[in-house]
Every structure is written in C-alpha cells, then in structure tokens.
Amino acid sequence: MFTSLIMSTAVYANPAHTENFRIKTNVDNPSTLDRTVRGKITDESGDKLPGVSVVLKGTTTGTVTDTDGAYSLNTPDQGGTLIFSSVGYLSQEINVGGRTTIDIKLAADSKALSEVVVVGYGSQLKKEITGAVQTIKADEIRDMPVSQVTQKLQGKLAGVQINQTTGKPGQGMSIRIRGQLSVSAGSDPLYVIDGFPITGSIGNMNPDEIEDITILKDAASTSLYGSRAANGVVLITTKKSTNGKTNISLNAYVGTQNVPQRGLVKMLNAEEFAQFKKEYYEDQNQPVPTEFQDPSSYRGKNNDWYGALLRRAPLQSYNLTVTTNTEKSSTSVVAGVFNQQGVVLNNAYRRYSLRINNEYRVSKKVSLGFNIAPSYIFDNTPKSDGDRGTGILFNALHTWPVMPIRDASGNLTTYNTFPGSTGNIFNYPNWVRAANELVNETKKTGFLGNAYAAYSPIKGLTFKASFNTEFLAQKFYYFNPSTATYRINVPIPTTASSIRQNLQNFSWLNENTVTYNKQLGEHAFEILAGATLQKFRQEVLTVSADTYPDDRVSTPQSAINISRGNGTSSGVDQFTLSSYLSRLTYNFKGKYLFTAAIRADGSSRFGADNRWGTFPSASVGWVVSDEEFLKSVKQVSFAKIRSSYGVIGNNNIGNYTQYALVNNTVNSVFGSTVSAGAAITSLANRNLGWEKTKQFDLGLDLGLFNDRITFVYDYYTKRTSNLLYSVQIAQEAGFGNFNDNIGDIKFWGNEFSLTTRNTVGQIKWTTNANISINRNKVLALADGIDRVYGSVNITKVGQPFGQFYGLIKDGYYSSAEELKGPVVPGRSAIGVIRYKDINGDGVITNGGDQDDRTIIGNPFPKFTYGITNNVSYKNFDLSVTGSGSQGNQLYVTHLYSTANLDAVFNMVAGVKDRFRVKNNAAGVATTVITKGAGKFGASNNGGNFTGLERDWASTQFLANASYFTIKNVTLGYNIGKSNKVFKSARLYASVQQLYVFTKYWGGPNPETSGQGDGNGDGGNLSQGRDFSNYPVPRTWTVGINLNF
Amino acid sequence: MRKKIIIACFATLAFTSCQDKFLSVTPETSLSSDTFFKTQADFQQAVNAAYAPLRTIFNDRAWKLGELHSDNSYYARNKLFGAVDATENIADFAIPTANGVTANDNVLQQWRQDYLIIARTNQILSLIDKVDFDPTIKSNLKGQALFLRAFAYFELARYFGSVPLHLTPVTVRQEAALPLSKVEDIYAQIEKDSKEASTSLLAKPKQEAGRVTSGTAKMLLANLYIVQKKWAEAGTLLSDIVKSGEYSLMPNYDDAFSGTSANKNNAESVFEVQYLEGSAGYNGNLIYQMIPAPITAAELFAITGTSNPQSISGENNNIPTPDIIAAYETGDKRKDVSIAYVTLSQSLRTDKKYPYIKKFARPHSQQGNTGQNFPVYRYAEVLLFLAESLNEQGKPAEAIPYLNMVRTRAGLAATTASAQADLREAIFKERRVELAFENKRWFDIIRTDRITEIIGAYGARVKANPTAYYFPDGSVPPPNAFTVLGKYYGYPAVESALTPNF
Fold first, then answer.
1. Domain boundaries, position B314
2. How many beta-carbon contacts under 8 Å exist across A and B?
3. What percent of chain A shows pLDDT beyond 70?
C-alpha cells in the first residue's frame, strides 16, 4: 500500500506540529509489501504526535500518524528500515526486523534536517542534499490575502529578490534568483508544477493549491533542467491527499484594500498651481492670463485627479479542500474562488479554479495518476500603468488641478480645454471617464493536466512515464469609446477604436524516466535516467478596428476601418525540445555525499548548426556533524559543508531568432494600387545558441544547540557567457541588429539564512531572517563594443549591468559670472540647471560617447533582506513578515512632466520653492528673485531653457529606493478541539503591505521597476525606472479556516 | 503527418533523423531567407519593398533637411512648447554638431531610411541574375533597383558628402560598418547605376504608373551631372527627355500636383512618391506636420475638410517665410496655389495670421490621413535644368525658351534676362518659386556654394525681426541660431557609436 503523505488540514488543527511533509511522487516504486507494522509515536514527554511521517527507507512507501499518534504501514516480509520524521523533531531510522509493533519516542529539535525536499525529478532527505535549495511550506505562507503566490514569498527566501512592480491584482511580480539577468534573454526562473516545466508564469495560479515551493538556486540543483535553468528553477508541489481519512477544509477570508497616503506624490493644489502660473508670467514680464490673476479664487476648489482614480475596494477568497485516501486510491480536490476589486476604479480580478489530483494503485507494482487543474480568470484593468501620457495614473498626476473633474451639475467633464492663452497645450481628457468607460479586459481559460504511470518490477527499480499538457485560451478585448481616452491631449470626442485578440497556447510534455536505488552496506546509490519531449504552440489573432459610428456596438464589423496597417495580425509561435537526462546520487554512511547530473537539450530555438547543448553538474557534501570529532561537541547538532559546480543554460531567446525573416507586408503603392512587397527584415545566424552559465556554490548548513539555531550560508559565483544579445549594428547594413551570442557577465554573492527558536515553552517564538548580497560585473560585450546604452542606463565593460547614466546636476546658474563657465551653448541662463563638465572641454554636451554623461547611480541593491517572526501562545498565533532592500536607486520618470517648469503640466509641490529670476525688457533672465531650495530651476522662457532640466537624464531624477516593508501581519486564534460540526477551526485577521519604511520620494512603491508592465524600453538594459505604476494597496482581512 | 513524426519519435527517441525533424521548427507566419528570392514574383515583391522607405523619407524627413533647412520655410514658435528641438535646430541652422557628428534625430532617420533602400536593392541586385525569368521583366526590375540605389546614394552624398558605400548585402555583424567612401566614388556609383537604369527601365508610357521610368533615371543622372557641373552631359540627357514627348507641363500649375486620390502621376510627373489615403497604412500626413498650430478643429476643417477634424496643439514647421512670399513676382499664379493663410485664435502672436503650404493641403476625408503624392521630379524641373545646362554651356539664347515655358504657365511675361550671368540668376530664382517646398532649395544653395550669402543674410533678417518670422512678441531665436552653416549635415551620432569609421 502506498500512502501519499500529506496532512494539510492538520496544519490548522495543530499549528505547533506542522508536519506537511510529503514525498514527491515523481518516482514511485511500490514493492511487495506483506507485513503490517503498527505503532504509536510520542514526544519525549509522552504526548502523542500526529502527523509524523513513517517511510520505508529506499522507497516512497509511507504513511503519517493520525491524531492519536498511531500509524500502520505495510512493510516487506524481509523487513526493512523505517524512517520516522516530523518537522521539529529528530528523525529516527529503525530496522523493522521481525517486529510488527514499533513505538517510538521522537526527540524534539531537529527542526529542518529530517525533512524530505522535492528536487528536480525526485526528492531527497534534506540532510543529504548537496545543492543550494530552499523550501517554503504552505503553512509558512498561509493566510496572506494576496492573489499571487509570489507575493507570499517576499522576504522569505535568501538569494531571491522578489519585487512587486505594480499593485494590479494578478500582475507585476518580478522574481530574480541570485541576481541573474541577461541582456535580452529574460530573467524569469523556470516554473515546474508537479514535475511539469510550464511555459507561462504562475501569476494566475491559486496559491491555495500549493503544498510547498522549492527554489533551486545552484547549478547542481538545476542542471537537470538544462537549457532552461540559468535563471533558477521554482518547483511547485500541489496538494495531495494525506492519510486514510477524509478531510474537508474551508478557508475563507474577506477584506478591504486602500492606498496608503504615505508615499503618494505630493502635487500642487489648484491654488498653488494658479500661484505658480501667475509667477510664471510675472517673472517673464508678461501679462498674467485672467484665469490666474487671483489664485485665491481656487482655494478649496482643488481637483485631485490622482485621488479621484482611487477607491477603497473589497476582496474575498474562498477555498474548499477535500482529500480522501483509500487503499486503492487517493484524491485531493481544491476548489477556489478569488474576487478582488482593484483600488483603481473599474479594476476587477476574479479567479475560479479547481484542481483534482488522483492516484490509483492498480496493483502492488503499478500505479496511475491523473491531475487536472482548470481555471478561469476575468481581469479588467484600466490603462493605469505606463509613462509619458500612456497610463492614466501618470496622466492624472500632471493634470492641472484647476481643471474640474465634475461640472457644476456634478457630471464628469469630458475634455478640459483651458484656453491656449493659459499655456494649456496638452488638453486633458477626464481620466475618471477613461477608467470607467474604457474596456480593457482579459479572460483566460487555463488547463493543466498530467497523467502518469509507474511500474516497479523489482525493489528499488521504477519506470515512470508521464504526459503533461498545458492549455491557455485567452481573449483580450479593448474598446476605447469616443467619449474617453487614456492618452493625453487626445480631443473628445475621439475616434473610437477597439482591439480584439484571441490567443491560444498549447504545450505538451512527455517524460520517461527510470530510477534505481540500492543500499549496499554503507553505500547508497540512486540512478536516474530519462528522456523527454516537449512541444509548445501559440496562435494569436488580433483585429484592430477604429472609427465606430456608435459607441454601443464595438464589434469589428461595425467599425468603418479595420486597421490593417496598425495591429491586425495573426501569428504562430512554436518550439520543440528534446532532452536526455541522468543523475547519480551516492552517499557513504549518509555523511559523504555525492551527486552528478547531466542533461542534453536539443532545441528548435537554437541555430541549425548548433542544435544540442549539454549541461553537466556535480556536487559533494560532507555531514561533518556525523564525524566522531564533532559528535562530542554538544553545541553543534548538525553541520554540513557542501559544494557544487555546473553548467546551465538560458534558452529564452525567442523562437525564430536564428532565421532571417522575410516580411511580406512591406507593400508599396503605385497609382491607386497596392502592390505586394517583401523584404528581409533580419539577419540569420545559424550558429545562434543558448546562454551558458557556469556556477560554483559553496554552502554551509549548521544547527546549533539542538537546532535552536539553524544557519545556512551560501557563497556563489557564476559566469554567464554567450549572452544572447541582439547586437546593434550600423544601420548602413540595412538592419538594426544581429542576434548573436556575445559577452560575459560575472555574478557573485553571499546568502545568509538564520532561524532561531527564541522561546519554546508556552510561548513559542521563532525568527527567520535572511540577507542576500548579490553583485554583478560585465566582463565583456561584443568585440568592438564596450558599452550599450539603455534609456537612462549604460551597460559597460568593467561595471555592473545597467547602471544609471546621465549628467551630474551641479545646482543652478545664478549670475552672469557663472555663465562664463561651462554651459550648454544657447540654452544655459540664470536659473537654468547646471551640470558638471565631466570631460572638461568647457561645454556641456549630452549625447555620443565623449559627452559629459557618466555613471550616476545603481539600480541594484547592496543587499536585500527579509525577516519573519512567529509567536504562538496557547490558542493564539502571530506572524509578522517584512522584506527590504538597501542601497538601490530608482529613476523617477514622472519628473519629466511633474517638474517640467514650462508649467504645461501640474507639478510636484516642491516646485513652489524653485529658483526664480526676473526677465529684463529684452526677455533675458537677469535679476535673481530667490535661489529657492536648489531642487528646481527657474521657469522662464519655456522649453528652450527649462527643457534641459526636463529632457536630459541627470542626478535630478534619481531617488534612493531603499525600503523595508512590513509585508504581512497575521493574528490567528484556534478554537479549541473538535466538536460535532468541525474538527478544528481557526479565526484570523491579516494585514498585507502594512507599512513601507523608506525615504523614496518618487512615488508610493519603491519596489517598482519599469519592466514590470512591459513599459521598460530596452528591457534589462533599462533597469530601475518608476513609471508611476499602480500603487500597492494595504489590505485588511479577516478569515476562517474550518476542518470538517 | 506531423502526428506520425511525433509518434515515430516516441518510438525511436534515440534516432537523430527523427530528432532533427522534431527539432526543425520554421516560422509559419513569415517566409525566411532560405525560401525567398527564387522566382520572378519574389523579385517583383522585393522591388516593391525597396520603394517603401521613400514614403517615410518624403513624409517625415526630406522636407526638414531639404526645405526647412533653407530660407524658404521656418517654424511657428509656440514658446510654451519645447518638444521639437531637433526640428527647430534644423530650421535655425543650429544643429548641435561636434567632431562631425550630430545627435539630431531627423538626420539619423534620413540616413537609416536611405540605407534601408540600399540594403534592399543590394539584396535584389546580388541575386536577380542567378534566377531565370522573362528578360524584359527582369531588366525592368533591375532598372528599378538600380535607380532606387542610385537615388538613395544621391540623397546621402548631398546630405553628408562621404558615406559608406555598400554594394553587396550584409550577412554577418562584422560586415555591417564600412569605411567612408569619397564623394567622387559615391557619385561614380550613382552615375553607373542610373546610366544602367536609364537603359533597363521601361519608358513612361509602358511603365506602370508610379514606378520609375527610363525618363526618371535620365533625370536623376542629369541632376547628378548638374551637381557635378557636367553641363553638356546633363544637357544631352535633358534634351532626350524633352524630345521623348513622354512628358508635358500641365496647363494649370495647380494641376501639376496630385490630389488626395486624383491627378496622380500626371503628364508632368517624372517621379512622385506614392501615397494612398485610407486605413491600409500607406497614407501620408504631410500637411499635419506643416499646418501652423495650435489650431482648433474648426480652423483646421476649413483647410482639410475632413469629417473628423480635431485640434492640434504644440507648434509646427515648414511655414513659408516672408522671403519666399516676397520672391514671387507680381501676378505669379503660383503664389496663391502654393501659399494660403490661416488665422489661429489660440496663437500667442499679436497678429494671429500664419501662411501655410497650400499646394500640399488637398481636401481629404479623415484627419491625419492623406493620399497626395509627393513630387520628386516634375517636367517643369526638366525644363529648368535644361535651361540651366544650356546657359552654363554658354548658350543663353537656347536656354531662354525653356525658362519661359515655365514662366508662361505661371502667368508671367518672358524673362528679361539675356546675358549668361543674369539668366543664371533668373533660373535660380525661378527654381525657387516653381519648385517651392519641393525640397530643392537647400540643394540648390549648396550646389551653387551660396550658403553664406543666402543663409547668412536670411539669418540676420530673422534675428533682426523675429516677429516677422512667426515668433510671439518677446520671443527670439535661440542664441546659437544661424551658427552651424556647413554644407553637409553631421553624421548621425547613434550610427557613429556603431561604426569605427566616423
């Protein structure tokens, strides 16, 4: 009999005994099991221990003790060894011999090391792992009211930087393992759900389906994923049924979200704006427009456009989990409903999901499994994010606060046209209408399916074949009626337009593996070999139409134009991957550990002449604490030194980058006839390959004072070469880029994790803390190229990747004398920003390689850290999680508009204290009125002078983005023991994103980054830009867990 | 079939032939270079694609580099609006240029579009002789490719002087950047290509309307000779064009220019860049870049007559200068065809009146979507070039009739000039008004070496009287206006960063 080992419901019933331990079912090997062994497990004080796992060593046969601490397990006639383990206790191995009853007392304290951890293509005792891996169990991240599991991981993982770049429900999580990045090949890790490497992200997965998450960080752990492993691998295991009983549990929470005032950009109010405008004209000796002659007339009539887009919004989540387990089969079902209204108007996110995991034990040698997970997601998101006129939040920030949101009768205005004489050159549509009236919805129907069969002809030998499918049907519908627009300066009524996009993804994976494990005396072996085939296909059809006679009908056929030249298209994307993999695991006495693994990947993405890649790795470990000389040192309960080296790849290089594509839509017109035209639009590179990363890891796992303190340290260094880079070439070639493998980046870092069980009596207090220090340096780019520019960044040999690049602000010119120094010819004047003459040529220039720009800042943190405290007392438990980042900067993009001294936009409140200078009769700024606070220059003479401060990237735009955020606080209360209605119940209250400690002044979210929403022009080359994305809300919830 | 392959793969996972099939995934939605350039139709399409960059060049760049950068047009300063520095710099002769390199985007885009034409034609010319098909069709296709390559190099040579000379397709990164070739070498290649084109191409009556013809190639070659002051060679070619009888002046100057859909490629047209009104994506929007702004929807409607007029903010360019307006002789019919006036209620100028280029403002139906072709070579210019080449050969008497043909249509009396020097000036002036806003002025100034004389004086006038040049009261040109008076534009900085050669 095989029993999958999990007891998630017990987690809630007995938080002190969190034993959601399971064995990965990838490799199943039932063998002949004839004798039943029974027993009771207690702790050292004799209290019964439920949820202790009992496993027949060398197999995946096992069970879990029930609430009375009792177990029964079928074992082979010839005996064998049973492993008893439970989180928080030292595991024990007992030789069964001829016994049928084995009662065990488990010693407390061996917190982490007896766990079994899911690794690639199998599982291992944590004690014996030689790679750098970290596992998060579901109960460590329970009760956090967020839509995405990645949000729950913030602050929990060493070496993994997780940022929430936008507050949009279901979107915008950036995860980067060990600082890995690439010029253009993507930095997202590979996600593997129950052994299936999926092609998408896990952003839309119901977090409640997840049992545990294992992050594979070093090459030894990831190399079995070969050409996809360089960015790290995230293994997700979904809930499987636990013990022999049927468990039903309901988890429900409801809550409300709002945007904290802290961090919102402080803008001029209507009166202050009018005052600014008045001074603007006065300083230039020009008549003040009537509208601004009396700023006080706007007192109390402020229009807070940004605030008008925000609201308090509810969210709710319901999950029902049912698990059953019989002798022949086990089933677990998770059904979830998640409904979140966004804090931006008209934003809604709803998810309906179901997961059914089934396993059938057909015979003693054969088992079959079927897992299916359908989901449906509805998402309507206003065009909230995006810079320079493309996101309504950004636009709202710089809309004049004197422009009415509502007219005298309380209706929303349509289009705010202050007269041109007031300097209003960018007329403003009403953003509230944009939020409410534009449709921007996505409906996703997803399906993950998995079927497998395992056959175990003899002990220790298992054949397994699995077939996995991933399906996504996504319908996107965008409609911009004539009454609103998200873009600035588009008159209303505007031309109504629509986009409809149908996307379909289908991916299948077949994996065939054989595993053999054998214990020979003190030598333990496991050998794995396998072959896999995977295929992905995506089909997209997009229809763009515009000019609708009637806003009420938005179908393409109702439009006057089907917009052929602009967004009506269809596409097909495919890739295939064929792989062989093998791993040997060996240990001697359980203390000298060795693992070697290799994978060969053949990929359709690689150039025809460079089709196969091989990715080997090896790792060793030494459990020092098992040595005699350390056994006497009682303070050290566990010590292991491990090291690994391996080669892994990154194949996120696009599907057809090796080909020179012929674009057959480069048509021409002759007379009134359109004639088909075709041109080669890219250059071929048949040698194009994957990026290669060589990684070395050295780690130490330490348990002290009976594991009251556990400590994990890792040092890594890795070198990514053959970076896929679309090298810019001189366009005299007729092409802009050549896809090539060039360059070298070195990464290195230190990771520390510390867990201390501070008190273990009635009050149990545990602290987990981690800190990660990641560094990188570009060692080489292409021959002849030693720097690549991003939008406000530079990637330069000898420097870290993507450094901020621009001019250094050196105050403001305040006298004619100072204007004799280095100036911008024709543009520098009194009150105008002054930059440092870095190249010392006497003039300030911006552009080219020999100008005055220099590296001005770093988008990468010096270190990131997280800390979690768990305290329980009697029936109460409290958990507080925080995460932080130190030493990184952000480029505050909105200053381009909101500190634009032309006064064509509303501005940040700080401009009140700007430099002021009065023009003389000839229109030249001569008389200094005030030098202000030194933060903003004078507003005289429009764009020609003020444009420098606005247009040229400089230190003016950089802000310290260090932060520490209290991500989550949860307080729970367990309502006693079983009663007639339920076995256990728990009430909790939770706050997400409680408070952000930061000096960042550029906006509410110091975690943001231009890449989060695809708005980063230049991808990784343009790191760290704040585009005024959707703020991250603070969420308050109350919830209940019931187990029946 | 595909399924069978997959099944076979499962069965024989280890066999490489099966692996290769499984792993060969070619793009389904576009052709790749392996399969293209195999048939006549492929080359036909490739030639069509080689024309495509001309739409961008003439809609977005040529008028900036060739007309705004002269005394014919300027910008209408809106001092609240500071976002078009790159274009203002061109009009102000203040393009920041250091070490022969400029960051001006217009210069960059012109460069790139010309080299796009060159790359596409190189691709065609390197492969077309290897494929067997109808020789007449092949000859006509080759002629078009040769012409387009020569045309692109002619633009480059006149904008930049020495430029890299690419004559074969680039296939790898290392071949992308070539050293600068001397302008004489570029001219020699233009001469060779356009000569061959003039014999390969079909004549206008046989050619599909809108494509280049043997006459167009001759005109290009003649234009080159005129720049090189090879007057006799130019004269012969231009006489050929006149004698061919394939071209004539439209009786009415206004009809020389295409409408948004009518009167395209008319009898006077030697070559026009073709646009098509509508949503297919081949339209232009030239007038929207030139109409003075800020303009209200109603003010714009009066000019464009569209069904969906919308206001335009900011400022715009290519506003006819007082100088060009004054250059028209009294009674010149071309003046009112070329230039009209609009009053902008939102203007910050006391006098809210601005001229705009009327000959490019033909009524059309949708805002921002015009189908008017842009004239590259007209028969009127053939006549003026012929007059010029004859005069320069010391035959003013033979030249005068050709000049007068152009003047007569304009409603003007015969020229009073008779001596060579006077006639030279008369032709120069005639070209200015006849070809106003057709991007000829800057090239005329540089080929006659009159930059300092003409632009210097023009700059002084602008600075002395900014309000006459559309500055609002109290606004003046930037201090560095009219300080960069070189014959050539600086090389684009972005390209400079990608090549070791400049």
1. 286-372
2. 291
3. 93
